[in-house]
Structure formats: C-alpha cells, structure tokens
Amino acid sequence: MIKRFSVLYVGQIDFENVGPGSTPADERLYPNERLVGAYDNAVNLAKHMDELGYYCMWTAEHHFQREGYECFPNLILLGVHLAGITKTLKFGSGFNVVPMWHPIRLAEDFAMADVLTGGRLIFGVGRGYHSREVETFGAPVIDNDANKELFEEQMEIIFKAFNEDSFSHHGKHYTIPADVPYRGYQLKDVTMVPRPLNRPVEIWQPIASGRTLEYIATKGIKAMVALTGERLVDELFRSYQEKAATVGHQLTLGQDMALGIGFYLGDDQQQAMEDVRPYHDERYKWFAPFGFVRYTDSQGRAWGTPGAPSGAPSIEDGVQQKVWACGPADTVIGMLREYEEKYPGLEDIILQWPEGMPWPEYKDQLSRFAKDVMPAFSGR
To answer: What was the pLDDT predicted at 21?
Structure first.
C-alpha cells in the first residue's frame, strides 16, 4: 500500500533553453555563479516539501559537472544543512558513490549526521557510472568487475562500522586497523565514533541494469527503481523478492522497494504531455548516452540493446510504458492504483524533478500533487 511520497532532485541548475533542439548537453558550460544556483533550488524545494507533508527529499552525488545537470558533491553535508531549516522532512542520499570514498569516512559522516539531525537522514549507496568522476577519484568504473569487487569490500566495512562495537578488516583493498603499536599495545581493532543512534541503518541502493540486484536483495538493502518501464519494473520487483527469499527474507511483492516516476498535472493528458515534453527531452539528452533509458520494446528487449530502439525516448514512450503520469489528478491516481494493486508491498513513490523545469513551475506541480493526488493515498 502506497504510504509515502518523496522527490528526487539530482541537482540541476536553471537552464536557459531546454529540449532536443537547444544547446547540446556537452556544450553547456556554466560559471560557478550559475552552478551554485542548484543550492538555492535545494533550499526552496526542501522548505516547500516540508510545508506540504512530503516524506523525503532525495539527492544525487556527482562531481565536475560544469554542464549543470548534477551539482551536489556531498549529500550528507547538504542533508544536515537542509534538516536545520526544515521541521520533519527526511533527506536521502540517492546515492553516495561509495568507490569515491574511504568507507570509514563515509560511515562516520553519516553517523554524525544521524546524531545531529535526530535520524532525519537516509543512507543510500551506489557504485557509480560516470567515468569522468569515479576514475578521476582513483577508483574503477569502466572495469565493472573491479568496481563490483571494490564496492562490496567497502560495504562489508561499512556494515561492520555501523553494527559492531569494535571491528577489524583484512581484505584486498583495505586493512583495518593498521598493524601498528598504540599507547603501549599492538592495535587489533577500532571502534567508529560516533556510530549511528538509529540502528539498524536503513540503506537504499538503485537497481538499473539489474547487475547488483542479487547483492542488494541478499544483503537486506532496500531497492529503488526509477523512471523504468512497467515491464522492466515487474521483472526487477519479482527478482528482488525471489533473491531475498533465498536468504530467508520473505517479502510481500514490492516490499522494501521504491518506485520513481515522472509526472505532470494538467487539465488533459495531451496538453500535460506537451507541457512537460521539453523537460522530459532535456533529461534524456543528458542521460541517454549513459544507457539510462529503462524502457523496453514490444518484445521486452531493453532500450539500447541489440534489436531494440536506441537514443532518447519521447514523452509518448514514457506515458505508454507508465514511466510518466500526465494529465488530470484522476489519471495520475489511476496509474498509481494500478502499481499499488500489482505490488501490495510497495509503500514509497518518488517523484522526479524533470531536468530544466523552472522552480516556479515545479513548485506549482508539487502543490497540485499534494492537494489533488496525495490525499488518495496518505493516512489511510
């Protein structure tokens, strides 16, 4: 049963022109004075969501994006600040790119934030996909096997740091603690100070290609599936449930998962699609080259794989595959009801701030959603 509504804001600035015929993504180069505009957007969004009763504001960690699409390098720092200017809204890391961190520093930062905010931050992890940032930080991402190996060892350390009074680790990439003398004794273990007050720590990770699905499900990590066609959603939701069952986690279909969708409310579906089209297209102008079009063709082949369509999809594709909900409130509610009926364990819906949509327009959309859609689900 759907209970909570959140927003994913990846940190885009206000673009001066959007859509497929506008400035090519790689030619968008902005000065620092424009790039920091993403932080004004974050403050405005957090305050508005807090007033309207949304559950969580999710953000994304990325680096070096002079193009202006994803401008937040530290989500925990951002979350602590935003928690200080709001009352109840939670702040989720969607996601901390673990290979770019020392795992103990990441665990410590989150633990400190958990203490300072009274548990209003949600921990999220990912393996990364931008070669420009991950490889520049000295971690592998082009070599998927090396990335996976590093990530899983880092997560083993993070689990220990969160959950054990003291711990040690001896792996391929890390030896913790250092084998050195300390105050007259040989160091054998360490204790993370502080540890989170709210344990066990709720951890989220994205499922995109499905390559990490088994790891997520068997480790008790909650899964986020965002802007994905309904056929792929069904495959991923069922696979997560099946993999969790192999380690004794019996989940209702959709339990411990979140579904991310795009939306635009309007008097009729066609006009709503036209209104959101430039922002939808701006999103995929940036993300399609990374392979982040999670749709299928009529034969179930993922977009971009052999035989399936490639490039950027249209808003018509998104609506047809139930990735985007456009039109009157009843239409949006109807699509959510279908997902709710199909996945009775699903409790979290995450709304996408489309890249390029000006803040006043998105603010109005969030207000309409809170007024016309959320009451059909919240507080039941």
So the answer is: 84
pLDDT digits (tens, 9 = 90+) for 69-103: 999 999 999 999 999 999 999 999 999 999 999 99
Cα separations in angstroms, 201 against 80, 110, 183, 276 = 17, 10, 32, 37
The pLDDT assigned to 340 comes to 96
167 and 219 assigned to the same domain: no
pLDDT at 379: 63
**Domain extent at residue 279:** 1-87+207-380
Q: What is this structure's pTM?
A: 0.96
* Domain final residue, candidates 206, 238, 264: 206
CA distance 110 to 196: 7
Q: Which residues of the chain have pLDDT under 70?
A: 379-380
Q: What is the CATH number of the domain that holds 19?
A: 3.20.20.30
- Which residues, other chains included, contact 192 with Cβ-Cβ below 8 Å and sequence gap of 6+? 104, 107, 108, 111, 161, 162, 167
Q: Into how many domains does the chain fold?
A: 2
| Calpha distance 62→69 (Å, rounded) | 9
Same domain as 214, residue 251: yes
Q: What is the crossing angle of helices 37-52 and 359-372, to 10°?
A: 20
Is 121:106 a contact under the CB 8 Å cutoff?
A: no
Same domain, 228 and 363: yes
pLDDT of residue 334: 97
pLDDT score recorded for residue 297? 87
For residue 364, give the H/E element and its range. Answer: helix 359-372
Token pair recorded at residue 108: 């410590």
